[in-house]
Amino acid sequence: MRITAVTGHVATTQFDYGNPAGPGGNLHLQAMDTLLVRVETDTGLTGWGEGFGFTLCATTRDALERLVAPACIGQDARDIPALMTALHRRFHNFGRNGAMTFALSGLDIALWDLAGKAAGLPLHALLGGRRRDAVPAYASLLRYGVPALVRENAARAVARGYRHVKLHEVELPCIAAAREGTPRDIPLMLDINCRWDTVDQALAFADAVRPLGVRWIEEPVWPPEDADAIAAVRARCGLPIAAGENCGTVEDFRRLLDAGAVDVAQPSITKIGGVTGMRAVQALAAGHGVAVVPHCPYFGPGLLATLHVLAAMEQETPLEVYFADLARAPFPALDPRGGMVAVPDGPGLGMEPDPACFAA
Ligand SMILES: [Mg+2]
């Protein structure tokens, strides 16, 4: 199965996350971009992946199409470890965390989609087989910065069936508002996005939120690769710590784990090297007795591939889903129902992206 083309396609859709008043916080998004990676082969099979792009999809696509794609033409799509290792080595001097590794992550996911399609098996079967028909989702709320909006949207998430709610708020009145808007048995995850400059600031924050029923504190301090600082927070704060979405390589994860920095490892499949990187991090985390709850607040093949990973995991683990309504989603069937997402059983990723959502 030889590769004949590798192309990137940006899907842009309007995006409504329940913030009608406009910018209330510092992250007011109205549209969401997804970088789809398409790999075509001489068998006629086509695979789909996703490289992290967020608001910079064109940059990841540039790395993909100008450097990665020419190196893939004529290569055997079936030997994923050999091809991916060769590409990571060849392009390592363009950065081990950023557009190049995001592009390679998207390629890897597409190769796993192709592997499943060639075998006539769903991706989860290649990962050991699914242990459940549906995976619980957790609602990942964007930052509103206004207590009334946080309260309203947290309550809406629970009304839609979500049993876990994550906030990206840093102001205590906003976090307290989420607690007011949700039943006490709904755990709150608090994603700080590296806001605090010092360990002491993070510890003071942890003291303030401890009574609110916190499942974990995510990325408490800047910079995200300061494993020792995160470990210092974890050692003293008395709440579980989650981190890892900003790791570019499995070696980055090894440093976090060796430092004792995390209770919850959060590899992002569109950044860490696709399915191959995700599996390597899962093995590493298992060796440290650390839970893996992937980072995946996106809507394309990366979300779908993460769903297959979670379907095959021994421990039931929630899927991160942005709490937002899209005008045109690449995979409408991934929208949670009653807080659950059904696991597809078709070959590969089990779904094809809606061609209406991106430019060919
Ligand atoms: Mg995060």
Features:
single chain; Enolase-like, domain 1; 9-stranded mixed β-sheet; binds magnesium ion; about 350 residues
Kindly summarize this structure in a few lines:
This protein has 360 residues and is an alpha/beta fold. Helix content is 37%, strand content 18%. Strands 4, 5, 6, 7, 8, 9, 10, 11 and 13 form a 9-stranded mixed sheet that branches. Strands 3-2-1-12 form a 4-stranded antiparallel sheet.
3D structure, described in words:
This protein has 360 residues and is of the alpha/beta class. It has helices at residues 57-72, 80-90, 99-119, 123-126, 147-159, 172-180, 199-209, 227-237, 250-258, 274-288, 301-312, and strands spanning 3-16, 31-41, 46-51, 134-140, 165-167, 188-191, 214-218, 241-243, 264-265, 291-292, 319-322, 325-326, 340-342. Strands 4, 5, 6, 7, 8, 9, 10, 11 and 13 form a 9-stranded mixed beta sheet that branches. Strand 7, helix 8 (227-237) and strand 8 (241-243) form a beta-alpha-beta unit. Helix 1 crosses helix 3, helix 2 (80-90) runs antiparallel to helix 3 and helix 5 runs parallel beside helix 6 (172-180). The structure holds magnesium ion. Magnesium ion binds at residues 191, 218-219, 245, 295.
